[in-house]
Amino acid sequence: MALGPRLELRQGQSLVITPQLQQAIKLLQLSNIELEAYVEAEIERNPLLQKDERDAEPEAEAVKAESTDDWSVDNAPDSVAAAEFDGGEGDASPGERATGDGDLGAQQAGGAVDWSKAGKGGSFEGGEDDLEGRLTRAKTLSEHLHDQLAVAGLNDAERAVAAQLIDAADEGGYMRADLWEIAERLGCELGFVEGVLTVLHGFEPTGVLARDVRECLALQLKERDRLDPAMAALLDNLELLARRDMNALRRACGVDDEDLRDMIAELKSLTPRPGAAFGGEPSAPVVPDVFVREGLGGLWLVELNTDTLPRVLVDQRYHARVAGGARTDQEKTFVSDCLATANWLVKSLDQRAKTILKVASEIVRQQDGFLAYGVEHLRPLNLKTVADAIGMHESTVSRVTSNKYLATPRGVYEMKFFFTSSIASTSAGAEAHSAESVRHKIKQLIEAERSETEVHSDDHIVDILKEAGVDIARRTVAKYREAMRIPSSVERRRMLRASV
């Protein structure tokens, strides 16, 4: 049989993720800050997209759902603006403003500038040149050290090395860079870098640019003229102090009980993080994506935070003008692609908002006991339970709960906080316990210890929890205790003995 090329037609089915579907999946897992950046980039790239600067309608300010049998949001008002925009006759679209075809009123006014927003000193309020903001802002540790460097009297080479060392300081004031790497990068000897670091150790605050805790505390003790051999031995055995092994400390330092207590008290008066007193970069506050509040009759109201939802519009008027002026096939394809992308983005944002609301509403329904009575009533919950309840896939619920926060009467929590593993009950047929609530019970038992005789071992905690109906193993108690950074019962007894 001869071999040769031939054409065949075959019909088949395959699962293909389109670019639009990939975009919708990506939007689900973005936080509100990442979403804002993504939308800004799309607006820059697509001339048919624009932000809706109008005030939100009263009915569109929040999408609400009550904790009742019907948790559907299909008939709720959209929290994202529609894809249509019909501006007034005098409103110029971003595309028209870019091409100079907008309202000529501002141009005919002679280019007058509105100085009503000018602040004191001739600068605009909130601008980068805000003198008042610069004067009232807390000085950072780096700025404080560079100010001292300017009057330290070092030569050019020493100042260059000192600047590198200062820039390597972390927020606590510790020098985290490798001295050998700095010396190699600057082309100087290691001893020269160490000499400059010794000079910087004399800067304020005392202990700054230390390479570890021992060196930081030693610098502060040296300034007080208290770095004697016994105190140096104490600094060399900080791990014994952390374990509260007083007998070993006395032998290492060669002092009696009274001297050791005085040395420990003096050590506690020092500052282990000298740079913490200075201002740093302001941390971005957590902005909740969903608000949960109690309504009438014990129902819980769930509403989206519309401030975190970008309100994007498609400029249909500008599209009509540009589409009418397109002549070549390339121009027509570009305009049609921009319109399709813009419409899909608006639709994806709307679907994202509805999906977040569905998931949040189901979480509130499942964890209403936590909202009403506290963490001890947190129920075991997994992604599959929520996914089955709202008719979605587990991966979708996982993406929705990533980097999303709920503001409840008990505080702001990440959505993933409400998903906890279950621990069986000792009673047959009884409801399982949430791992988070069990951890809370263990913490309460340990915090109630007031003397050596009241210290609970892990085995004793197991017995107490089993009496309360929690079937838990000793190794699980130890794992939860270590995760909460709680010392063992032996170390807790030493701490209580030393505090007496």
Could you characterize the architecture of this molecule?
This protein has 23 helices and 9 strands. The protein is α+β, with helices and mostly antiparallel strands. A 5-stranded mixed β-sheet has the order 2-4-3-6-7, with helices on one face. A hairpin with a 5-residue loop joins strand 3 and strand 4. 21% of the residues are buried.
Low-confidence spans: pLDDT under 50, at least 5 residues?
56-131
Largest sheet: 5 strands, mixed
- List how many beta strands DSSP finds: 9
The order of strands across the largest sheet is 2-4-3-6-7
Global geometry: extended
Question: What fraction, in percent, of the residue positions are helical?
Answer: 40-55%
The structure class reads alpha+beta
User: Radius of gyration, rounded?
Assistant: 32 Å
Q: Which strand-content bin applies to the residues?
A: 5-15%
Annotation field: number of helices: 23
Mean pLDDT: 79
Distance between the termini: 99 Å
